[in-house]
Design a protein that fits this description.
The chain is an alpha+beta fold. 19% of the residues lie in helices and 43% in strands. It has two domains: 99 residues, Carboxypeptidase-like, regulatory domain (Immunoglobulin-like), CATH 2.60.40; 175 residues, Immunoglobulin-like (Sandwich). The strands form six sheets. Strands 13-16-10-9-18-21-20-23 form an eight-stranded mixed β-sheet.
Length: 375
Amino acid sequence: MADAASLEAQLEYRTVEGVVVSGTAGDSDMFGQVVTLHRVTAAGFDDITTITDDTGAFRFENIKYDPSTRYGVSVRYQDAIYGTDLEMSTGSPPPVRLTVYEATHDDSIVSASSASLLLASAEASDRTLAALEIITLVNHSDMAYVPGTGVMELLRFGLPPEATELSLDTRLIGADFIQVDRGFALLASVPPGEHEIMFSYRFPYPGETFTLDKSYRYGAESLRILAPEEVVSISVEGLGKPERVMIGERQYRVLEAEGLSRGESLSLELDGLPTPGVTDRVGNSLSGIRFQFAAPVALGVLMVALLAYGAIWKTKGQRREAATSETYSERAVIFRMISDLTDSYESGEISDEEYRQRLMVLNARLTALGPHGQG
């Protein structure tokens, strides 16, 4: 009895409280919303729920704190989930504010602030190109886009004909995807703000030259297309000559455009593609690692650097000559990505298996760069 009483005295308890509010004008009644407290351990997870009062407030009391458990709180409102992780190692967290929004199936409230396409490598033996795209979606309204039941009520993205090995990564809560005619549909709610999605795939090409038709359903305030010089030459009529930029001690050709309207298409001319008879994979410095793991992580390093390139280019008043001479430290970006990856793992956003696979890819890339000071 004494031991049980002593153990109970040593347990730490927490209180989690907050409020659910609406971010949509004219929508203020948050009474009766179901709020869920999530507890995730290595053995599994369990949830407890409570109901908001007439002011939208909620409260969980006497929560036994376990340092090996990850905590979070969420609310489902009109088929969209809103939530946040909780840090409770030093005591009860500050009051939580969960902002929810009226839902709509109309994707016209969603546009793209930026789009980037990386043609990462070419496989001569089967004539396939590996591609990685990053699109930043933006919702400037005070409503949340929620997928509908029909294909036309889903966020849709185009892929080249016969594309395979599609892999997607995003921080949108509960996101998934399905393949549809000529592309895929993203199954995710999009609340107000900016949200990045990254997807990779392979697609076939017929010979040394190929025209890739790309359509941007959500437009793009800025567009960047790049490829390593040794992989393929790229051009788009009307965009001028590609710029040269050094990223991670490797030369890339970069095409840029601004102000793509909704639904606008362009034809990307590819030249110098390898054909059967070339024994080595061109442009792939990550041999032995499955591309679906390499693309969202290690190849993402290049895209992060590209985005940095774009930001510097803008701050210099579009002085392209200065921007193209910039060299970016791939090593520093990888360390940053490892830190972000660890944060995602510790907050429960990714599984143990996914964490290990991605960390393996990043560490392999660091090893390939050589000792610090040489890469």
